[in-house]
From TrEMBL:
It is a multi-pass membrane protein. Its main location: membrane. Keywords: Membrane, Transmembrane, Transmembrane helix, Transport. It comes from Periweissella beninensis. Pfam families: Transp_cyt_pur. The keyword Nucleus does not apply. This is Cytosine permease.
Length: 450
């Protein structure tokens, strides 16, 4: 008789309550926030047309992949990291789970820090504290702690509270982004923004911008099933996440691009460190209300981040349920949010984080999608997901082929990122995923024949 390895929670049809609007709001909220705005400001260094092309290209590719991963969750009822047990092995799935916990805590910390900058500006206006841009530590530290408390409130009831915060947050997001758009185009014309070019020393290539966006977008793929398994209909689980995530991305990243270029035109200098929403909102004269909305939209995005991190944590042990995991990752994320204070600028910490996300996630995603759609033909035996010596146990719980393919992918990404002909044109992330997928598929089929 097979022993069980950990536990998984399968969502059945009776538990699937999320409709199209719930899924749409969740995925708009995931991207319609200050982190996406900041990404837009960073890739503005490529100029309007190059950054726009990179944004649309990376968004469409990434969120088609998101839809595929969402389909896996809908068909099986399993969370994202539990699904990797079939491809990496029951023990091998700890690798993508560790990556997911770390990266979503990292994303939470990044969004928290950006929102805390807004709070530091508010505290400056009310109490005279120095802002983060003025190298003040008290205001930004208080801001991080306030965001930590808001996050604890947002995840207090698990999936139900995340669903509620997304429904409320999406309304504020829409109001804010319309307001921001009007203010930007009152200050500068579209023609000025379209013709602006950054200095060569800070200019990004198309490939560089594509890699930055790929790292940002693909992070959501590893959380897709955590939400799609609660969807009541197939289209709500697949098409709706694609549409919601794409709308949130394009809307807020374009605002980030436009606002950052508008600020550069006004100041006659482009500084990517000024790309955060709080700095731009202050320079555009949007006032305290705008800063408060930035804080709220950060909370909606981080509700999704924390749910993904908590879900990944439950894949390690049966002793922790989802609500407990959410509290653990929220507290850790609040502590991690202080790390950027030890870097010269937040941008330095953020770009290093993005490089690591792109390198580790791309090969992982390529493997678990290839396994489900091409190798196993969309047929997983759910009963084997917890069985020691079952079909997903492989070699002592680890699929060596998946592990080696993943390690190869890391090496390929590193090599591609060092080659200008690839790095500057098509970027390293998507080609690495293609190579990893082909290698994993070929070796797995050869091994099956043997």
């Amino acid at each position: 008789m097979n022993k069980n390895f950990g536990k998984i929670t399968v969502i059945n049809d009776n538990q699937r309550k999320m409709n199209h609007w719930d899924m749409f709001a969740t995925w708009i909220g995931a991207n319609a926030n200050n982190g996406t705005w900041y990404i837009g400001g960073v890739i503005a260094a490529a100029g309007l047309w190059t950054s726009s092309l990179a944004l649309v290209t990376a968004g469409i590719i990434s969120y088609i992949i998101l839809g595929l991963a969402s389909y896996m969750g809908f068909k099986t009822g399993l969370p994202a990291m539990a699904l990797t047990r079939a491809s990496f092995g029951l023990r091998g799935s700890f690798i993508p789970s560790i990556i997911n916990v770390i990266q979503f805590i990292g994303w939470t910390a990044a969004n928290t820090f950006i929102a805390a900058i807004s709070i530091s500006v508010i505290l400056h206006d009310i109490f005279g504290f120095k802002t983060y841009q003025q190298h003040g530590l008290l205001g930004i530290s208080i801001g991080i702690l306030i965001m930590g408390l808001l996050h604890l409130c947002s995840i207090s009831l698990g999936q139900r509270s995340v669903q509620l915060i997304e429904r409320i947050g999406i309304i504020l997001v829409i109001i804010f982004v319309i307001w921001e758009s009007i203010v930007v185009f009152k200050q500068v014309s579209f023609a000025q923004i379209a013709n602006w070019q950054p200095k060569v020393v800070v200019k990004l290539s198309f490939g560089n911008a594509l890699d930055i966006l790929a790292a940002f977008n693909l992070a959501w793929v590893t959380a897709a099933a955590d939400f799609s398994r609660f969807a009541a209909k197939k289209t709500a689980a697949t098409v709706t996440p694609f549409l919601g995530a794409s709308l949130g991305l394009f809307w807020f990243a374009f605002i980030g691009i436009f606002a950052t270029i508008a600020t550069a035109l006004s100041l006659n200098v482009y500084d990517p460190n000024n790309s955060d929403p709080s700095t731009i909102a202050s320079k555009l004269g949007l006032g305290v209300i705008a800063l408060i909305v930035i804080v709220i939209t950060s909370t909606t995005a981080n509700a999704v981040n924390l749910m993904a991190a908590g879900s990944a944590l439950t894949n390690f042990t049966k002793k922790i349920n989802l609500n407990q995991a959410l509290w653990i990752v929220t507290i850790i994320a609040t502590i991690v949010s202080f790390i950027p204070l030890f870097f010269a600028t937040f941008l330095d910490a953020f770009t290093q984080f993005l490089d690591l996300v792109g390198m580790f996630l791309g090969p992982e995603i390529a493997i678990f999608l290839t396994d489900y759609f091409l190798l196993k033909n969309q047929k997983y035996d759910i009963s084997a997901f917890t069985k020691i010596a079952g079909q997903y146990w492989y070699d002592k719980g680890v699929n060596i082929i998946a592990l080696l393919s993943w390690l190869l992918g890391l090496g390929v990404f590193f090599i591609f990122s060092m080659l200008p002909i690839i790095k500057d044109t098509i970027g390293a992330t998507f080609p690495t995923m293609l190579v990893t997928s082909i290698v994993y598929l070929i070796i797995s089929k050869i091994n099956t024949k043997d």
